[in-house]
Amino acid sequence: MVIKRATVNDISYIELIERACFEKSERYERSLLNTLLGNQEFLTIIACINDKPIGYASAYLSELCHESKIISIAVLPEYRKMGIGTIMIEEIERNALAKGIIKVALEVRMTNFEALKFYKKRGFLIRGVLLDYYGPGKNAFTMEKILRCPREGRKNSNDQSSKNSIDLASKY
Ligand SMILES: CC(C)(COP(=O)(O)OP(=O)(O)OC[C@H]1O[C@@H](n2cnc3c(N)ncnc32)[C@H](O)[C@@H]1OP(=O)(O)O)[C@@H](O)C(=O)NCCC(=O)NCCS
To answer: What is the phi/psi pair of residue 113, to 5°?
Structure first.
């Protein structure tokens, strides 16, 4: 599997993944996807197997902000439970640390039990509730994770492992 940074040229693939993974009311509009892909403050990655895009993730990763926000993460149903979501979120966490960001936050629908289990396994903790966040009666949890630097005790990283994780495609 290859993880690469997505560009505006990948927008159709991301739309396909969105359609396969989210109900209509929870999908991102093309205009928002364009913003994610065109703005350097967002990191959007695609996971591919044999050149076929099978998952994507996007996060706000600004050096001006102490907190990173996961905007979306999705894996095509037939490729789930194979560790691909974990690899993508690890890539986002590595890039956050490389920018000196140690907190990652996100929102998740309260009834999205698979995603909740996924985030909890990755060390995210529930921090709050947003009523009607996804529409009437569709509440969300806010979740957070404090990242640990690969090297003990250091908040950030000028270390090589972090530098290596930025931008370039990674092979797994
Ligand atoms: C959430 C999602 C991205 C996880 O991707 P994935 O590639 O299947 O995740 P992984 O294989 O890395 O799973 C890691 C762990 O998460 C948990 N998990 C993932 N999917 C699960 C499921 N369907 N049921 C229960 N636990 C699950 C498990 O603990 C799993 O570890 P295990 O396989 O050792 O038990 C994927 O289910 C998905 O695309 N869901 C639809 C889109 C979505 O809801 N995104 C989140 C929006 S907030």
So the answer is: -65, -35
Share in percent of the chain as helix, strand, coil (round to 5): 35, 30, 35
pLDDT tens figures, 95-110: 999 999 999 999 999 9
10: tokens are 């990948």
Q: Edge-to-edge, what's the strand order for the sheet holding 42-49?
A: 125-130, 140-146, 103-109, 67-75, 52-60, 42-49, 2-5, 170-171
Q: pLDDT tens across 117-170, in order?
A: 999 999 999 999 999 999 999 999 999 999 986 664 444 433 433 333 433 333
Question: How far apart are alpha carbons 10 and 33 in whole angstroms?
Answer: 10
CA of residue 66 to ligand 1 center, whole Å: 26
Distance of CA 41 to the CA centre of its chain: 13
The one-letter amino acid code at 135 reads G
Q: How far is the CA of 64 from the centre of ligand 1 (A)?
A: 30
| DSSP letter (8 states) at residue 28 | P
Token output for 97: 């640390």
Residue nearest to atom 17 of ligand 1 (CA): 118
Three-state secondary-structure class, residue 108: strand
> Do 44 and 5 form a contact (C-beta atoms < 8 A)?
yes
